[in-house]
Amino acid sequence: MFYIVDVEDYVRVEPKLFGLDTAEAVKQQLQKTYMEFQDRDLGEVIDVLEVNEVVDGIIIPGDGAAYYKSLFKLIVFKPELQELVYGQIEEITSFGAFINMGVSRGMIHISQTMDDFVSFSKTGSLSGKDGKRSLNVGDNCLARVVAISFKGDEPKIGLTMRQPGLGRLDWIEADKNKKTSKKTEGDEKETKPKKEKKK
Asked: Does the structure show a pLDDT above 60 at 188?
């Protein structure tokens, strides 16, 4: 999920930015500092939206930079458990698929790609045995976040597409059309008059 976050911090502005307006120098420094920044509590920083307040700076002896206490807004991406995410299959391996969610990447274990027995084919796709469905690189999908792990530099996001209403977008549409046609057939059966038995 995307959030707008208010942050208060001391920003170290490098001497090369001293010629700029103070607020602009602070913004440029923030964009450099927070580019690809990730934090377990904050999330992944996408961009610095605006600098709301900059207090007079201080200089620390021996350091050529200036430090400004600043209040600014960031837009961040922080995945939440059970959240639905849209993305495109970027890579398929023998143990599952990786989905590009735009900002981050998630992993779908082979057992969670569809509600079927799934096998990895020589052509680099995942195929279901009974439903005859397959998952390929470039497929657009809807998945649910089921695990988030913060080991290393970026979070590991575990996804599932096994539940109803998830998976490749054309699978979802096909399932929806099946339900609609079954409901229509059921309605037709109820409206047909019953034949009376002769005595």
From this structure: no
Pairwise pLDDT comparison (187 vs 162), residue with the higher score: 162
pLDDT in tens, 40-98: 888 889 999 999 999 988 888 888 899 999 999 999 998 899 999 999 999 999 999 99
Cα–Cα distance list, 10 to 24, 63, 77, 87, 118 (Å): 15, 15, 23, 36, 52
Residue 133 and residue 69 share a domain: no
Q: What is the largest CA-CA distance in the chain?
A: 110
Q: How many domains does the chain have?
A: 2
Residue 3 CA from chain centroid, whole number = 13
pTM of the model as a whole: 0.73
Strands 156-160 and 105-109, bridge-based pairing:
parallel
Residue ending a domain, choose from 77, 105, 120: 77
In the chain, what is the straight-line distance between the N-terminal and C-terminal CA atoms, in Å? 68
